[in-house]
Design a protein that fits this description.
The complex is a heterodimer. Chain A is mainly alpha-helical. Chain A is 65% helix and 2% strand. Chain A has a two-stranded antiparallel ribbon. The mean pLDDT of chain A is 94. Chain B is mostly helical. Chain B has a single domain, classed as Ferritin (Up-down Bundle). Helix content of chain B is 65%, strand content 0%. Chain B has ten helices and no strands. In chain B, helix 2 packs across helix 3 and helix 2 packs antiparallel against helix 5. Chain B starts with a helix and ends in a 6-residue tail after the last helix. Classes of the chains: A mainly alpha, B mainly alpha. At the A-B interface, helix 3, helix 4, helix 7, helix 12 and helix 13 of A face helix 2, helix 3, helix 5, helix 6 and helix 10 of B. The structure holds fe (ii) ion.
Chain lengths: 333, 254
């Protein structure tokens, strides 16, 4: 998902008996469904994993502004322009909540930015795909936010308090975004002209498999999630969530009169779910390795914003310091 | 009657095109601002401006009575039919120019919308009342930013001064005066823009003072935007981007 390239400890999950007393108490609190708060004891590996997961999630929100921001200046009506602007602004807000949640673990926002800019920390693979037509604004809202919701709704119950609370706020907005995206698809695929229908189908063709990739590698190749699940910083397996997404999305595509680009897609009477083709995991690995269609552009855009803005941040800080100094002088008199 | 109507339409386009074009420019920052808080604040400003545009252009379309919508006015007019001041169409360039422009504009909008609240035209008054709340907040933010960055470091002061020098010749156009302005004044729909010049001067000079910035002394002023006589080359590019979908898919619903 937004933290799809998380590598956990790689070790098998320790049994309660093998843990230190402190770690056992900690794990028992999690098992009881208690929330861990910033000042509470937590194992170093739990803290580290959370920082990486929340950091990747935060980075995904702000890098995620870019593919949609790409269409704000070309939105077709004033209402659509306002809606898209508000949506991309919400994503920046999500980034802000999440950086704040990460900061409670003892890492600064500037440090996290630094790790994003040097490539030490990742963001979701989905944002390395280009947005080529206005239908992509529909497809991103419908599929990408739809996939994000699948992951984030259970994370409202994650064990770390500040993360869980950030998720509650974020989920409310994401479901609104998803509806907004679906309405763009309705306008184009169902009520639009032939050209608009074609754009909508093309957007679905391009975003279907990348959306499936958002859930991360297949469970059989994802050996690292057991610890995260024991810690309740991951609530479901990748394949569980991906299946849930496919089952929810296929009927929506049918409603829109669009076809999912998968010849092997069919309803399985026995399992009561859809059989579907897995995405091309080689492509997924390429994107994670930095070779997706837009990796370079996305990272460059973030780095440019950061370096172009340096004088602004420094100027504001200098002014704040001068103001404090002047105030102190006045009080001394 | 038809004479008065065309003046009213002209007046309303001037009110609507300023926030449309400035809102478009401001929205270009989305995802690229110097800090996350600024990104959110700029998007907020852009949203307010687009909202104001919808109100003004809807009214303009109604007065026109030709079946056009606010979207038709925004997306299907060409350069010579736009009535925004030149200042709002020049490129963002950097954060300094963006914020100095916002400040110079807000310093005009606040007293302007304040007087429009008393317009003899009820719709104009209603839109002004709603927009003024936003403009007051924008002015508070933009003047704080101008002061902070003017007073900040040597570099930030220099950036802000450069922006101010560039924008200053575009500020005189706020106070233009032609037959439309006179007609609006006569009907008590709006005062002459020059009537708020002193208020603008004092807001601007006190803020610039605090910010250690110096207003250029050359009184030269560009004009041609609010009359539509001669826009800058930048507007055509902006419209080419903004209008692309409506132009390439005539009649499509989005
Ligand atoms: Fe989000």
């Amino acid at each position: 998902m937004y933290a799809q390239s998380i590598r956990s400890t790689g070790k098998a999950v320790q049994s309660l008996e093998d843990m230190s007393a402190e770690d056992r108490q900690f794990q028992e609190r999690i098992n009881r469904g208690e929330k861990i708060e910033p000042k509470d004891y937590m194992p170093a590996a739990y803290r580290e994993n959370l920082i990486r997961q929340i950091g990747q999630h935060a980075h995904s929100e702000i890098v995620g502004q870019l593919p949609e921001g790409n269409w704000i200046s070309r939105a077709p009506t004033l209402e659509r322009k306002a809606n898209l602007l508000a949506k991309v602004q919400d994503e920046a807000g999500h980034g802000l909540y999440l950086y704040c949640a990460a900061e409670t673990l003892g890492v600064s926002r500037d440090d996290l930015f630094g790790m994003l800019h040097t490539g030490k920390m990742k963001y979701s693979s989905i944002f390395n795909y280009p947005t080529l037509t206005w239908a992509d604004m529909g497809a991103v809202g419908w599929l990408v936010d739809g996939a994000a919701i699948m992951n984030q709704v259970p994370l409202q119950n994650t064990s770390y308090g500040p993360y869980a609370r950030a998720m509650v706020r974020i989920c409310k907005e994401e479901s609104f975004h998803q509806r907004q995206g679906f309405h763009i698809m309705i306008a184009m695929a169902k009520n639009g002209n032939d050209e608009q229908h074609r754009m909508a189908q093309d957007a679905l063709n391009r975003f279907w498999y990348p959306s499936l990739m958002m859930f991360g590698p297949s469970d059989k190749d994802s050996v690292h999630s057991a610890q995260s699940m024991a810690w309740k910083i991951k609530m479901n397996t990748n394949d569980e969530l991906r299946q849930k997404f496919v089952d929810a999305t296929v009927p929506q595509a049918e409603f829109l009169g669009l076809s999912i680009p998968d010849d092997h897609l069919n309803w399985n009477e026995k399992t009561n779910q859809y059989n579907y083709s897995e995405p091309d995991w080689n492509e997924f690995n390429d994107v994670l390795a930095g070779n997706g269609p837009c990796n370079t552009e996305r990272l460059d855009a973030r780095k440019k914003a950061w370096s172009d803005g340096a004088w602004v941040r420094e100027g504001m800080m200098a002014h704040a310091a001068k103001k404090a100094e002047r105030k102190a002088e006045r009080q001394a008199v | 009657m038809s004479q008065v109507d065309s003046h009213l339409i002209e007046f309303l386009l001037r009110q609507g095109d300023n926030p449309l074009i400035l809102g478009h420019r401001t929205s270009e920052w989305c995802g690229h601002a110097p800090a996350l808080e600024e990104d959110i604040a700029l998007a907020n400003t852009a949203l307010d401006l687009i909202g104001q545009t919808q109100l003004w252009l809807s009214y303009a379309a109604e007065v026109e009575g030709g079946g056009r919508s606010n979207n038709d006015l925004a997306f299907l007019r060409d350069v010579y039919d736009f009535r925004n001041v030149l200042m709002v169409e020049v490129p963002n360039e950097d954060f300094a120019r963006t914020m100095v422009r916002q400040f110079l504009f807000d310093a005009f909008q606040v007293p302007w919308l304040t007087t429009l609240q008393a317009s003899s035209d009820q719709r104009v008054s209603d839109i002004a009342i709603k927009s003024l709340k936003e403009a007051l907040y924008h002015l508070e933010r933009s003047s704080d930013t101008v002061i902070a960055l003017g007073d900040g470091t040597e570099l930030s002061n220099d950036r802000m001064q450069t922006a101010l020098n560039y924008l200053w010749p575009y500020s005189g156009e706020f106070f233009g005066e032609d037959d439309t302005d006179k007609a609006m004044e006569k009907r008590d729909i709006a005062p002459l823009p020059v009537s708020i010049r002193e208020t603008w001067n004092s807001t601007v000079s006190s803020t610039l003072d605090t910010a250690n910035l110096i207003a250029p002394s050359d009184p030269f002023a560009h004009s041609g935007g609010r009359t539509g006589v001669r826009h800058t080359e930048h507007l055509g590019h902006l419209l080419a981007t903004m209008q692309t979908l409506q132009r390439s898919h005539p009649g499509a619903q989005w």
